[in-house]
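Can anyone check this?
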Amino acid sequence: MNKLFSISLTSVLFFSACNQSVKTKKNSDPLEAGREFINASLTGDYDYAKKYLLTDSTNLMYFERFVEFDEKKPAKDKDGYKNSNIIINSTENISDSITIINYSNTYKKEPAKIKLIKKNNEWLVDFKYTFLDSSYIFK
């Protein structure tokens, strides 16, 4: 009886573990990496979004402030963003290692932009560009 219970329990655990969806980082393409970052930010999955962040002190500071501000939004806005779709308005390939994505979402439709930088063969979001003058990309 104990052996049957043990086998049943093991089977349930195995199949439930196989059914878990695991988000894997997709950053070999700037558009895909940008979409993943934007989507994670809209849905409030900040840990996943942070995986796409170019790690430097300024980006981390801006991202932490963004998260603090975002968490204080009313529930109605959080749900609106969470249920919205990304609209890619344009992409601009500045060089083989810099891409700018201009986008909005179906909830607020306000234009926004992010800069992606290819570093160590991965595309990462240079978040400070979103808050600084666009001439930053040429510095």
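Reply from J.R.: I decoded it. The chain is about 45% helix and 20% strand.
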